[in-house]
Amino acid sequence: MSSPAPKFTTTHWLIIIIASIGFLFDTYELLMTPLVAAPAIAELLKVLPSDPSVTEWVGKLLWIAAVCGGVFGLLGGWLVDKFGRKTIMAASIFVYSFSPFCAAFATSLPMFIFFRCTTFIGVCVEFVAAITWLAEVFTDKHQKEKWLGITQACASLGGVLVTVVSVWISKNLDTLPHWGLPAGSTGIGAWRYTLMSGILPAIPIALMLPFVPESKVWKDKKLAGTLKRPSFAGLFSSELRRVTIVTTILSACAYGIAFGALQVTVARVTPGLPELKAEGMALAALKKTDMEISAKLKAPGLDDAAKAALKAEMKANFDKQKPVNIKIKAMSDKLQFHQEMGGLAGRVLLAGLLIWGISRVKLLKVFQIPALIILPVTYFVLFKDGGDAFLWGYALCGLVTVAQFSYFGEYLPKVFPMHLRGTGGSFATNVGGRMIGTCMATLNTSWLAPMLAGGALAVKPMHVAMAAGYIATAMAVIAFVVGFMLPEPKAEEG
């Protein structure tokens, strides 16, 4: 007969609230990037948003931030095992809270990029620290699984919240106080206020942290001197080599689908939907004109008058793009909303299945098998017709992909020993996911889509959608095959 679950206390609820806020703002801080990157870079470089250098630097920013997040996130996992779960989690939350606030006051591109990188670092460390902390502060197995699933579901609300905040700031920009923010040529940009909102999680976390404990099992072993030293080499011992490699590959596949397909869909595929055919053609023509003007500006021997005339022509062309971009942005927001709601449904479904008690290997197949069908059908079939069918297909893509993120958040702390829980979880998430998986976005837009189009200048949304379909399907197949090598967790230590 199983013993009754421990009674819930105020401390338990504070732990759940802190973890939920942490997971929610993980997503919130990361999804600021597509909202603020282009306008921020354009203002700091003193060029129009349509300037090719803006697109170039947005790509560089995503790559630099992902690499920094992966490398320092890996180090953060080691710190979690060395100095404590709560300690490093708190530090990482404060890092990712104050970094965007500092970025709001950026007066140069290097300063902006630096603080976006520290934001990514904080997020990468916090995720691993939080799941490790949660896995150890709940001593009851069913409570642990239940609340790991439920708290991670809050991550899907982060994308919705940052979109709502961004829209509200844009509508109320003229009435917001200046707070000493640097002004651009058209005043204080909305992107600065959006970044400032990133400090929000620091306030409740700072108030609640003194009232929650460090992981007792980790602390007791640390004080007793029986806690082994964490090491990266330990992840490749004969006992852990298989689970380290398999979880790293599976994490890379999940992130590869998210970045190589889902994320580029909102930004690059939307203009190619059938319902936006006219707007897509108009925007393509206007951007072609932009490129022609930019090429003329780079020509040697231009006097100041000629440069001024070309810049005025570029500004006029940019103004023509505004009404087209508004319609495309509305559809992009609609797509993003469907993906976020699909992701939320996936996390909730996973939490329910965890409570039900299905085996971990079978649980992963619940999402991997439908992904083999849903992903290629959405990109190779539904995209051509657009409409509600594509929107709901895209939502299902979000469901089967995002649920896997929560799956690993629950699975990873179970398969690594206590002295390597942070290090092991960080290796799989940051090396596999952040450093390898996120590169699928670059693989799509910089190599595969141009190859399918016959050249970089010939790339259209349909080519990016086709590349997204190939990448997503390949990742799904690899994940399905490798998933059979995933071991069931053994009895947990502590």
Overview of this structure, please?
This protein is mostly helical and 494 residues long. Helix content is 77%, strand content 0%. The protein has 18 helices and no strands. The protein has helices at residues 10-30, 33-45, 52-83, 85-103, 109-137, 141-153, 155-171, 190-196, 202-208, 216-224, 241-269, 277-297, 304-356, 360-385, 387-415, 421-437, 439-453, 461-483. Helix 4 (85-103) packs antiparallel against helix 5 (109-137). The longest helix is centred in the C-terminal third of the chain and has 53 residues, at 304-356. The protein is globular, with a radius of gyration of 23 Å. The mean pLDDT is 84.
Can you tag this structure with a few keywords?
494 residues; single chain; mainly alpha
Order of helices and strands: HHHHHHHHHHHHHHHHHH
Largest sheet: none
Mean of residue pLDDT values: 84
Give the count of helical stretches.
Answer: 18
| Strand content bin | under 5%
Work out the helicity level.
over 70%
Would you count the extended β strands for me? 0
Structural class, judged by helices and strands? Answer: mainly alpha
Radius of gyration: 23 Å
Low-confidence stretches: none
**CA(first)-CA(last) distance:** 21 Å
Write down the overall geometry. Answer: globular
